[in-house]
Amino acid sequence: MHFKKNKQKDEEQKKLQKEKNNQYRAERRSLLNRKSKEYYIKNRDKCLEKVKKYREKNKINISVKEAKKRILDTERFDKNNLKFYLWSLKNREKLNEYQRNWYKKNKEKRRAHVILNRAVNSGKIVRPNFCCECLQKCKPDGHHIDYNLPLEVVWICRKCHSRKSTRTIKI
Ligand SMILES: [Zn+2]
């Protein structure tokens, strides 16, 4: 009986210690986060240089990792595009060249996309979580009506977007 009581006590103490440790770690983590943030603000260029070098060195690993993430994101990833997607992974250079040419030919569109992306990332514009045309829940694209108004967009899904684009080309 006495022994049993002791055992119970031990376990309670262990539990308490564990909780304490967790709390200590959480506090430490937030302190470290704050410190690294402060460090980043003071040494922004140095940090960015470091990240750039790291990305350059681990280019292939990073692109594969990001590709996997994208495939797992079913809301974003359309299975019909899988064939093209796998092709693009193997022909990265070709695709990059195509993209560069597209940017050169479509400077206006590119500019609008960059401005819109920045506004979304900074929280100035909120992307809805559904398509405004078919009302399906998804991560919609911003469809520009006028590229001179980069922040004026209709939020529609990939399917509705491609339908819209082909319609515009036909006109
Ligand atoms: Zn849609």
Question: What report would you give on this structure?
Answer:
The chain is mostly helical and 171 residues long. The protein has a domain of 109 residues. 70% of the residues lie in helices and 5% in strands. The protein has seven helices and two strands, in the order ααααααββα. The protein has a two-stranded antiparallel sheet. A hairpin with an 8-residue loop joins β1 and β2. The longest helix has 41 residues. The chain is elongated. The termini are far apart. Zinc ion binds next to α7.
Short structural description:
The chain is mainly alpha-helical and about 170 residues long.
Instruction: State which percent range the strand residues make up.
Output: under 5%
What Rg is obtained from the alpha carbons, in whole angstroms? 25 Å
Please, what is the average pLDDT? 84
Shape: elongated
Task: Pick out the low-confidence regions.
Answer: none
Please identify the structural class as seen in this structure: mainly alpha
Overall number of strands: 2
Separation, N- and C-terminal Cα atoms: 89 Å
Helical residues, percent: over 70%
Bound molecules: zinc ion
Walk across the major sheet and give the strand order. 1-2
Number of helices: 7
SSE ordering: HHHHHHEEH
Largest beta-sheet details: 2 strands, antiparallel
